[in-house]
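lol ok so funny story. i was supposed to be doing the assay writeup but got distracted and ended up predicting the structure for this chain instead. priorities right. anyway since i did it might as well share w the group, maybe its usefull for someone
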Amino acid sequence: MPLLDSPFAQLDLIRQPEQQNEPLQAFDAADEYLLAYLAEQQPAAQTRVLVLNDSFGALAASLAGKVEVISSGDSFLALQALEKNLVRNGRPFDAVPALPASEAFTGPFDRVLIKVPKTLALLEEQLIRLQGQLAPGAQVIAAAMVKHLPRAAGDLLERYIGPVQASLAVKKARLLIATPDTRTPAVSPYPTRYWLDEPKIELLNHANVFCREGLDIGTRAFLPHLPKNLGTAQVADLGCGNGVLAIASALQNPEARYTLVDESYMAVQSAAENWRAALGEREAIIRAGDGLAGQEAQSLDVVLCNPPFHQQQVVGDFLAWRMFQQAREALVVGGALYIVGNRHLGYHSKLARLFRGVEQVAATPKFVILKARK
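and the output, tada:
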């Protein structure tokens, strides 16, 4: 894999989660462009730089020890990658303070470097949170590959920060440079809320939650077919999002015990708030994590999962396949994984390679609900 060579450092970087013969590198031309632009300004060691949405730590690890850098993002895997990449390049794992997106950052910041996220609602929330956190003379610089840079990103910078200048494209990457001006503080439109009819619950959704405006159609197909009569089973909602699968299951299974895990901090924050609203003080483990990577082997009876088929801009079944493997490890013999998936993704044959028996529980024209028994 090529090294990230910038005016600040030369780094050997890995992606998370790791996979053998990784076809993709852990940085892109937008990272290189941002670092080159900042280097031209010759920032002093005491310059406070906030890095947002640094996919695998490329920006923050490059700046560690050169300026006062803080990293914040909504991905557990991204913050894990930052720690691993710092160590991989001879720095302490905690050389850069890292904040989950569910926690507020505290300025003042002289420079803010933003990798434009796939979900523009996350960008909007981050820009609103920057109000009052910028030092005099600050700049906010957003970067993305041109093919992933919607016009709306510049509009959001203009609305919440100030006038925006777009750079020339370099190696198919572009910068949007915003100069803060004085404006009336905006009120965040997040979290959003919507109601379900069955079960009758209200769901709150922070900015980066998948389908925050309404229930996604896969989950809608899954809900009527959640397993019943679970008794005191240990149940995990893997990739829990706003927690709807676990909450609906828990309402039907008052004795069962639940673990909800997602790699999005905003999803975990939403799930925790929704669990409390629907189930009060009923105990549950709700955490950000790399799927079930930290789960004890043979500790679960049931896993519920609506697997993702992309990581940021990259589409594929690597994450889903990994989740299936994690579920198999964590389930007791005789335990079951229940999933919903698009018909065309062919999950039945993939699960059959890992599990003793796979059956179709239900189907719609677009989705299948499968049960895989260990």
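The two ends are 37 Å apart (CA to CA). The CA atoms of residues 127 and 159 lie 9 Å apart.
back to the writeup now i swear
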